[in-house]
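Priority: medium. Attachment 1 of 2:
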């Protein structure tokens, strides 16, 4: 399956020439974007976000230049609650020369893969990286935000831009990447929150004892945050209020949290186990914090991770916020583990990951199957170009 293949290809990035393997991954991503196939518009409850993006793209041929640039100006001046403009920009320019939505998703894949691979270089460049089972597991965690997520392109592309910026800022001490981080709200408006988290982590990077206490508190009382946001929603800037209202809307929350079939409860159980497991990994970091802090590569990444997890746990009750931002912690956790623990500590804890994530594997396979036609698996690249262009 493509999701599994994406991780399998990546693990050989140090066994062979890095540039060659990275180029193969990039090409795989581009052709995945080209082959990404969805219906137009959400026609049922199980329709995916990509269907909405296709439908909106098909309407963009009617958007005039003046209307597009007026909308962009409104975004820059925070008028009318416009949250972001990445999708609008790609959809507008692609629609100028084609009505083929496959081209749009290919562009999405190119940008997504570029920042994903820039981040991956941090991981595979480490001396502890090898073609071992432990590294395969860590690699999967690091690349949890897979190419399928061009389906929800705005948030997940912003996620890779954000992760790459964080690795540069807190891992390499290159503070000029704050400028790149400032671009993340262009991809998705929720990343103003991520910028806030980063600023707090930067100025509070020597307050690990405080963040440690808040980490444990946040894990225990995460369900209070929904009412807290609702009660203080008017404190947010105008351009964030619309997003906050949609995330905390009562009917939206009930829809996301309503029970369903047995499969729903299986998913909920495994999601809970994954959350506990990832928090337990952070607990192990706290337990061995002296070792992590003594390493210049992970000293400030650890501080950032604590602040991020405090936010994630406190907002876990808010659909589309805590859970999504939690996935941004996975690459940081995987990198810190690789640098400090790999092959020396807690291997059994790491080996439990495939069992705990087993339902996630199943879901990912089903999602890839849903958006790829059989021709993708059996055709050569030239035929795919002919077929989808």
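Attachment 2 of 2:
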């Amino acid at each position: 399956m493509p999701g599994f293949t994406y991780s399998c290809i990546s693990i050989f990035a140090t066994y062979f020439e890095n540039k060659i393997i990275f180029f193969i991954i990039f090409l795989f991503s581009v052709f995945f974007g080209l082959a990404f196939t969805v219906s137009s518009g959400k026609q049922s409850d199980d329709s995916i976000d990509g269907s909405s993006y296709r439908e909106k793209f098909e309407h963009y041929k009617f958007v005039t230049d003046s209307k597009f640039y007026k909308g962009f100006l409104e975004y820059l001046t925070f008028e009318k609650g416009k949250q972001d403009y990445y999708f609008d920009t790609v959809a507008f320019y692609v629609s100028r020369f084609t009505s083929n939505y496959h081209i749009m998703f290919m562009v999405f894949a190119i940008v997504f893969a570029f920042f994903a691979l820039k981040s991956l270089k941090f991981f595979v460049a480490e001396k502890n990286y090898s073609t071992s089972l432990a590294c395969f597991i860590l690699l999967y965690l690091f690349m949890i935000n897979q190419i399928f997520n061009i389906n929800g392109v705005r948030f997940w592309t912003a996620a890779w831009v954000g992760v790459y910026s964080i690795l540069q800022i807190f891992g390499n001490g290159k503070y000029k990447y704050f400028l790149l981080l400032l671009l993340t709200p262009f991809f998705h408006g929720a990343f103003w929150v991520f910028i806030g988290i980063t600023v707090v982590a930067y100025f509070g990077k020597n307050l690990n004892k405080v963040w440690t206490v808040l980490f444990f508190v946040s894990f225990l009382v995460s369900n209070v945050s929904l009412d807290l946001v609702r009660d203080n929603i008017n404190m947010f800037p105008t351009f964030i209020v619309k997003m906050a209202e949609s995330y905390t809307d009562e009917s939206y929350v009930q829809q996301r949290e309503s029970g369903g079939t047995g499969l729903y409860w299986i998913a909920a159980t495994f999601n809970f186990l994954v959350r506990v497991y990832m928090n337990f990994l952070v607990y192990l970091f706290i337990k061995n914090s002296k070792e992590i802090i003594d390493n210049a590569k992970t000293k400030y990444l650890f501080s950032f991770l604590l602040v991020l997890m405090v936010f994630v746990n406190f907002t876990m009750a808010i659909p589309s916020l805590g859970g999504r931002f939690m996935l941004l912690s996975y690459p940081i956790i995987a990198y810190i583990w690789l640098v400090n623990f790999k092959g020396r500590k807690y291997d059994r804890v790491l080996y439990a990951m495939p069992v705990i994530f087993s339902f996630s594997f199943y879901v990912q396979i089903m999602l890839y199957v849903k958006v790829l036609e059989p021709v993708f698996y059996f055709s050569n690249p030239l035929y795919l170009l002919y077929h989808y262009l």
